[in-house]
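Input record (one chain):
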Amino acid sequence: MTPARSPSWEESFHSDPSRAGPRSPETAADPRLGSRRRADAAALGMLAYAEYALLYVVAVALLALSGVVLARTISGFLGGAGTWPERSIVVLEELLLVLIILEIFVTVLAHLQGGRLQLEPFIVVAIIAVVRHILSIVVRLAIPGSPAQDRFGLAELVVNTGVMFLLVAALALNRWSQRRHAD
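The corresponding structure, as predicted from the sequence alone:
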């Protein structure tokens, strides 16, 4: 006759219905678990609902903001002061700002559609932002200034160009990594 063996810690932990999650409809109907599980599920449901509500508000705000920036850009170009090339560069910078806002909007929209957070849209936003900054540096360098300001502007241009190359390399590496995982 073999002596009765006491259950191990792991066996008793998994057999205790108050500690283990429901594994079947029978254990899910356990009255000792029901109210706590329903309360947790209700709290998580409310938090998920709040997250989606905030994401919808952010998406609408981003879309409205991009529309306002675009409208002001067009009206500023048509009725603005300055030479045509200066106004064109300002319009280009503002259109790049609209692209940045829309890229963030698309990221929020993808998350609302159940997608997971992606790295690529943020790299694209960074590239657009650096291009926008490079354009503003070029505009400042086109206006004659002191030699010290010009040297600083050129140094800033070189640094931003290096950042641009790093971001493009990061984008290429990210895309290569995604293709490699897809195969």
